[in-house]
Each structure stands twice: as C-alpha cells, then as structure tokens.
Design brief:
Elements (H helix, E strand, L loop, with lengths): L1 E2 L6 E5 L4 H13 L4 E6 L7 H12 L4 E6 L5 H11 L3 E4 L8 H4 L1 H21 L4 E7 L23 H20 L3 E6 L2 E2 L8 H10 L4 E3 L6 E2 L2 E2 H12 L1 E2 L3 E2 L5 E2 L2 E6 L5 E2 H14 L13 E3 L15 H7 L7 H15 L3
Parallel strand pairs: 2-3, 2-5, 3-4, 5-6, 6-7, 7-15, 8-11, 9-17
Antiparallel strand pairs: 1-12, 10-16, 13-14
Helix pairs in contact: 1-2, 1-8, 3-5, 5-6, 9-11
Length: 350
C-alpha cells in the first residue's frame, strides 16, 4: 500500500453536496488545514434540495480552501476543464444517482450519472494522472447472495436492480482502467448509510416524515429484513483512511502493470431487524420531541410484501478494511438514530 500524505493536496470530490460527500469535505477541511478541495454537484431535485443547500452552508462556514462547482459529471467538457484547471492529485467520486426503487421507474438518470459520468472521471484520471481514485460502490452489488456476511471475495454477478448493475459496472470499469493505465483505484461498498442531514428517501428519514404527517409506514417483507446500518461518521472515517492508502503499482512477469486496484466493504457488521429498527427510531423520535409521548405507532405501521429490487439481508464482512486500515465502524444504531432525531427537530423546527 502506498501511503499518501494529504497535506497540501488538491482533492476533487464529486457529489460534494450529497450526504457522504459533504460530510467528507467537512472532515477534511477540519483535520487537514492545508488541503484544497474542489467540489462538484449538479444539485438535482431527486430529493429536497434545501438539505443539499444546508450541507453546503455548513461547509462554507468552515472556511479553508474550498471551491464549489455546480455541474454534472456527465458533462465531459466540464470534467476535462476541471482537471485541466485544478489538477487534482486525489479524486473521490461520490456523485451517483442513488436508490434501488427509483432505478426501476427512472432508469435514464442512472445510465447518465453512474455510467457516463463515471466514464468521464476515469478518462480524466487517465489523461491527468492522479495518485488515487476512490469511488462509491454499494452493498447492492451482492444481490441475493445467500452467503453472509458479504465478502469482497464473493461473486457478484447477479444484480437485482439497475442501480446495483451500474455499481458493479463501476468496479469493472475501474479495474480495466487500473490495468490499462496503471491508475490506483479503490471501490467502497457502502452499507445503508444513515445519520443527520441524510437522504430523505432512506427508510429512517421517510418513516419520520410519514409518522409526523400521520401517515402509515410500510415495512417490507413483513418486517423480515435485516439491514447493516452504518453511521455517517464511520463511513467518512473509513473513506478518509482509504484515501490515504492507495494500492501499490506493480509490474507483472509479462512486464505489464498488475492493476493497482482494491475493493472494500464499509458496514457496521451488525445487521438489524427492520421491526427492531422501527422500534428504536420511534423511541428516539419521542425522546427528541419530534413526535408526542402518546403517539400510537401500531396504528401507523403496515407489514407488506417484498418490493422488486430489494434484498432480504445486507451484512458486511469488513475484515479486509480492518486488517488494512485498522478501522471498523462501531456506532450503535440507537446512538446514530438519536443524533438524526435531534438534527431533524432543529432543521424542521419541530
């Protein structure tokens, strides 16, 4: 592994107004004062843009060397110009159209952002050599694998959603570019990321909105699902460590590069039953005074069948992450949901 000192580096972070991207920017600006960060985000309206704007405000309040560009990574000319102007040494590609269910009804945006956009990033890394490309993959690539916990050694050839297929494609594309052009690249398979100022389409956030509105929440597969919930701070710490550890460049016996390529899981390695998750969420929402003490949760829950594209379990084997970077996510679900509930109360002025 090639250690990268982040001091005085220029880092391009795509999806910088997103949940993970904005928190990563904040962490880097706080802990590496000499770093220069270029952020790009198209600020699309897949979910409430005011949350993205709030995240950017938190970044601006920190000061430091921060430049934000509003644009789409599928715009090749824009990406080429960014690399030409700023010459980033590290690229963290977090821009992507997220969501399993949305990929069934709106497939076009997944092809644009997750495939064309990522291709543009790879091409730019080819022509403007970078020390390390880190990119977001997803636990969705494991599909309906029966073996748990999910290991990066497992075959992931059977995606059950277009979203998962695009993420697996990202890993294959990155591997090809690593082999052909000796670009150090690392993919990160994130497992159900949650926390304050997260994505409103995620269960914990959408459930909260619906419960506040007096609506019924649907719990899929009749509650018989397990999710490896991973708190945002753990994700960011993992990404930060991975950025600093690029795969080594090596030459094979044939004189050609051995791909400097790696993939890691980042998850809590502690799957939670959805019914238990809803119970903890409801308790923390009451404690934060987002919902009243006498709220009747049983009247607002509906157990329903499995959704197309969904999987019954996500469970990360993080042993490689632990052995390589000496890090294991460990924030418990109650603590994470408590922080979310407290943020929610303030943001929505409950």
């Amino acid at each position: 592994m090639n250690y990268i000192d982040l001091d005085h580096k220029t880092i391009l972070i795509t999806g910088a107004a997103g949940f993970i991207g904005s928190n990563l920017v904040i962490e880097l600006l706080r802990t590496v004062p000499s770093v220069s960060i270029i952020g790009i985000d198209n600020m699309n309206d897949y979910y409430d843009v005011s949350i993205k704007a709030w995240r950017l405000e938190q970044i601006e309040a920190l000061g430091g060397s921060w430049t934000f560009v509003r644009g789409n990574i599928a715009d090749k000319e824009l990406i080429v110009n960014l690399f030409e102007k700023y010459k980033p040494e590290i690229v963290v590609n977090l821009a992507a159209q997220a969501g399993v269910r949305y990929s069934i009804t709106n497939p076009d945006v997944y092809i644009e952002s997750n495939l064309i956009g990522f291709y543009n990033i790879l091409e730019a890394c080819r022509h403007y050599p970078v020390e390390h490309l880190v990119y977001a993959s997803s636990s969705s690539v494991y599909g309906v694998n029966k073996k748990v916990p999910y290991s990066t050694e497992d075959k992931v050839d059977n995606p059950v959603s277009l979203y998962a297929a695009t993420k697996k494609s990202n890993e294959l594309m990155a591997h090809a570019y690593s082999k052909l052009y000796n670009i150090p690249s690392t993919g990160l398979r994130f497992f159900t990321v949650y926390g304050p100022a997260g994505r409103p389409d995620m269960a914990y956030f959408s459930f909260t909105n619906k419960l506040r509105a007096g609506e019924t929440i649907k719990i899929f597969n009749y509650g018989n699902c397990l999710r490896d919930f991973t708190y945002i701070d753990d994700i960011v710490e993992g990404v930060k460590r991975v950025i600093q550890g690029a795969p080594d460049k090596k030459t094979g016996e044939d004189g050609l590069p051995i791909p400097p390529y790696a993939v890691y899981n980042i998850g809590n390695s502690k799957p939670e039953n959805l019914l238990d998750f809803v119970q903890i969420l409801s308790e923390e929402l009451v404690k934060a005074e987002v919902l009243p003490d006498d709220y009747n949760f049983e009247n607002h829950k509906e157990l329903v069948a499995m959704q197309p594209g969904d999987v019954t379990v996500t469970y990360a084997d993080t042993s490689e992450l632990e052995s390589t970077f000496e890090f294991k996510p460990n924030t418990d679900l109650r603590t994470g949901l408590r922080r979310f509930a407290e943020w929610y109360k303030v943001f929505y002025k409950v």
